[in-house]
């Protein structure tokens, strides 16, 4: 740094700067002028401080992210309006969805999106062929549509064409495609509006695979329903559909992730289990498909999991990122062209990975500094990197 240079920020509420070194620190979202002065000569540049990412939802070929300032951003395929920007145009970089700044949660299905606002209202947009938006129609929506009048939604999940929600009182609701029993109402007819499943009031978490559902109660027990064609329900009835919530076992679980045809779950002691289809190594263990839960390895330090179509992601307690399964389109992020990995493979040497999500053949992660990274298939711009080029290693989304 040249001697005699003095640095100043026009708005210290946006960013502060060390006068002698020019090192700037963001304080709040906004813009400020950074001025460098030497004697009577000065020059300035505009500094923009942007909100970090808090959540990421990955769909079939689109992604939606929630920033710390409560705004929602989307990119990728938009054929059915799943981005919510009012158009049907694919976006190669993140675009702001509406003007609301009170979004608190988001979920993405194959071609539809769900989100909750801070007032507890539920919103949906995108493909609605099977009623997966829940607005009582089968009409696609290109902008967020408020679903019903309830103001007590606390969680949402999206499968290929079905949706799930949990309300504040612990009740579980489902709507959309039901051919495989994935809604859990005991029938096979699609539901066009959110419908309460059973009478229990102790549901706390739900995840949706392509055509199956996994949900956890406050007791830690997992219940499963929907397609079990590849053993993804973890029940001894492979090939059969299960149409009502059925307990998988008596284990106490902490978190779950559902892929196209496989399931992952974290036990409360930090061990990671998998079951279902293993045709691409997505279970993380050698061998074929498996109908019962089995540990991926002997580690007891797993803290986060995600499941794509045929690949899996996980983060360990030390912040390291791991991946396994199909890698034909670079979705593991290990930088190679290996077609698949049958066991967990560490991705890079960073130790600040925090949240992960897996789309159909793309992967996403938020690091502890709030930056968003993506890799894998990019044929619809779902990586948000401004082009249609596949990435085989994590790259930061602008």
TrEMBL record:
Keywords (A to Z) from UniProt: Repeat
InterPro entries for this protein: Big_2, RCC1-like_dom, RCC1/BLIP-II, Reg_chr_condens, Signaling_Regulatory_Domain
RCC1-like domain sequence ranges: 203-397
Domain BIG2: 2-48
Keyword Repeat: yes
Protein name, UniProt field: Uncharacterized protein
Protein origin, superkingdom: Bacteria
Any one Pfam family match given in the protein's UniProt record, by short name: RCC1
Organism expressing this protein natively: Tepidimonas fonticaldi
